[in-house]
Amino acid sequence: MLVIIDYGVGNLFSLKSSFAAINVEAIVSSNKDVILNADRIILPGVGAFEDASRKLRESGLDVVLKECAKKGTPIMGICLGMQMLFDRSYENGCFEGLGLIKGEVRPIKDVIPKDFKIPQIGWNALDFKNESPIFKYIKGGDYVYFVHSFYATNCDESLIATTNYGAPLTAAVQSKNVYGCQFHPEKSGDVGLRILKAFCEV
Amino acid sequence: MITKRIIPCLDVKNGRVVKGVNFKNVNDVSSPVELAKYYSANGADELVFYDISASVEERSLFTDILCETAKSVFIPLTVGGGINTVADFDRVLKCGADKVSVNSGAIKNPNLVYEAAKLYGNQCVVISADVKRVDGVFRVFAKGGRENTGMEAIFWIKRCVDNGAGEVVLNSIDTDGVKKGFDLEMLDAVCNAVSVPVIASGGAGCIDDFKELFLKLPKVDAGLAASIFHFKEVEINKLKEELRACGISVRL
Fold first, then answer.
1. Cross-chain residue pair A124–B1, CB shorter than 8 Å
2. Nearest to B151 by CA among B171, B132, B175
3. Which residue of A has its CA nearest to B197?
């Protein structure tokens, strides 16, 4: 069973619907046992890093997620959920992440040209940097939908795709069984659904 | 490279799309769900659902339709109309909206944008402004463009962005419905005042109007229209092909 983690952050309706559209049964849960027994896990998230990581910690789900990652359960973080997979974030301070993928999260304003708007909102192309099973059904140059003001950096070999927003920004990462998408696959039309389908087959 | 977005807007009343639609290959031409699926499959980058319900019953029908749409359409969905409180944000976000646009609600309650942005994030809050020139000054209008608030538009929009609005929809009452092109002067003024994405609305009549918009004002992020898409005067895929041929970055 695929479990979408509910820790009180963000709208899970579209995410759940997108799995239904590819005929994958998904449940939304915050139950530790359910999550520990999941075949696959989605870690969603919108809003601010500090608030989201605090909620995850307070619910004790941070420990559960680390355990799942260790025993090999495929995990995909989406948007802020992806940012939380890293060691730390510099969004309004410095806050510790899950540390499941090496790297840190920084403001995009540090690297993009001054006349580029923040947040990046809209469809942008994926430039593949490394092979990954989640790209099985899509090709480089395919468009996905982004909404973000922060990006992951220093991810080294876990970087699998970037997107060009005046500077190359981390779009997707993978470290063994842990995956992350800065964009929203559940809002990226057919391309997004194909990424989710591929994730369900890893 | 980030692409320019093309956004059809659907006005929904009593569970149906109003403003008459004329589609041959959509079975139920005024079903918001069917129309949303059609647009999603034919190049729309995002959809706006505008709720023009007049009663509580109609409003609950609207949210039912929103849920139904979000179950089968996987592109961003913005909802506007009748958003006056944070509870209204909650109501539509739970039904699958990604962004919520506020207009009169933000004029009535100056804290709404701030409160909603704090709760749901800036990316979720869209300020939609109906603006018209009065004695040469851009003024904000409320109640669907019927009432002059007396507020200077650029100041108002800038304040909403400072309070946390992550995107601006600028609807020029002066060009709306005229089909002679977008209001470039008004859009330029707004783009120069804010650093968040700006969506142009009001005045598109043909493909050339979108070309002019993006070529003359590269700072504009998206173009929104309703009837020209509904009546197939402009087909979105064809529009995007022509935009790409002029060197404008679009998702095809």
1. yes
2. B132
3. A117
Please give, rounded to a whole number of angstroms, the shortest distance from the CA of B45 to a CA of chain A.
Answer: 8
Do A85 and A102 form a contact (C-beta atoms < 8 A)? no
* Contact between chains at A187 and B74 (C-beta distance less than 8 A): yes
A66–chain B nearest CA distance, Å: 27
Enter the tokens of residue A1.
């069973």
Model-level ipTM above the cut of 0.90: yes
CATH 3.20.20.70 given to domain B5-245: yes
Nearest CA in chain B to A124: B2
User: Where do the domains of chain A lie?
Assistant: 2-201
Do the Cβ atoms of A14 and B196 come within 8 Å? no
pLDDT the model gives residue A32: 96
> Least CB-CB distance to A20: which of B71, B167, B221?
B71
Q: What are phi and psi of B160, to 5 degrees?
A: -60, -40
C-alpha span between A32 and A3 (Å, rounded): 11
Interface of A with B in 83-142 (CB under 8 A): 115, 117-125
Amino acid at A171: A
Q: Which of A91, A148, A181, A184 is catalytic?
A: A184
Bridge partners of residue A127, in order along the sequence: A162
**Chain A interface mutation, best of B63, B251, B252, highest count of A Cβ atoms under 10 Å:** B251
Distance (Å, whole) CA B159 – CA B143: 20
**Structurally, what CATH architecture does the domain formed by A2-201 represent?**
3-Layer(aba) Sandwich (3.40)
Angle, CA A151 vertex, CA A148 and CA A152 arms, to 5°: 145
pLDDT of residue B28: 59
Domain spans of chain B? 5-245
- B231 — pLDDT class (breaks 50, 70, 90): confident
Closest C-alpha among B54, B62, B64, B118 to residue B86 = B118
